Amino acid sequence: RGILIAAALSYGALSLVLGRQFAKTQAGGGLCPLTLTKGEKTLRLLALIDTGNTLRDPLTGEGVVVLDCGRAGALVPELAGVPAQAFQRPVELLARFAGEEPDLRLLPYQAVGVPCGLLLAVRVDRARVGGEELGPLLVAMSPTPVSDGGSYRALIGALT
Predict the structure, then answer these.
(1) Which residues, at least 6 apart from 152, have a Cβ–Cβ distance to it below 8 Å?
(2) Pick from 53, 70, 31: which is nearest to 138 by CA?
(3) How far apart are CA 66 and CA 69, in angstroms?
(4) Is 50 exceeded by the pLDDT of residue 132?
């Protein structure tokens, strides 16, 4: 009888804990609104809070937002219409647009299967995550989609 009561209490506790976690996931607990501003350009999109994203600006030590390259033209008009394949060669892109957009730079990174890579990046004037103002930060453009389903267009790691 004691075992049945203990099993019932354990089941109830687990259901409560896991039910709340499932509800949080369903409600988009890992997603948040992101607003990036560069000059007169403002980009609003949904971002995933990615705890595995440890990408940092090597100059400032601040965290970096990783943006789907398909949205880069909204911040840097010179990049509008540039095909995603071109972002796989960031050195060539930087050379092509450096005179037109002086805020572009290369950002080194490592990932699974990529021991040493480069991303094209730009510093934005302002970033707002949810209701929190973060000020200027670096935004790197991913040559591959950051979301397999398209529900979000950026990844946010530890930004502080």
Answers:
(1) 31, 45, 46, 47, 48, 146
(2) 53
(3) 9
(4) yes
Q: Which token pair is 9?
A: 């209490």
Residue for token pair 């002086």:
102
DSSP per residue over 26-94, as a string?
A: HTTTTEEEEEEEETTEEEEEEEEE-TT---B-TTT--BEEEEEGGGGGGT-GGGTT--GGGGG-HHHHH
Query: What is the reported pTM?
Result: 0.77
| The residue type at 2 | G
Residue with tokens 């990844």: 155
Q: C-alpha angle 75/65/113, rounded to 5°?
A: 115
Length of the chain: 160
Pairing between β-strand 104-111 and β-strand 126-129 as defined by DSSP bridges: unpaired
> Which of these, 28, 31, 29, 34, lies nearest to 133 by C-alpha position?
34
Percentage of the chain beyond pLDDT 70 is 91
CA 126, 127, 133, 134 torsion: positive or negative? negative
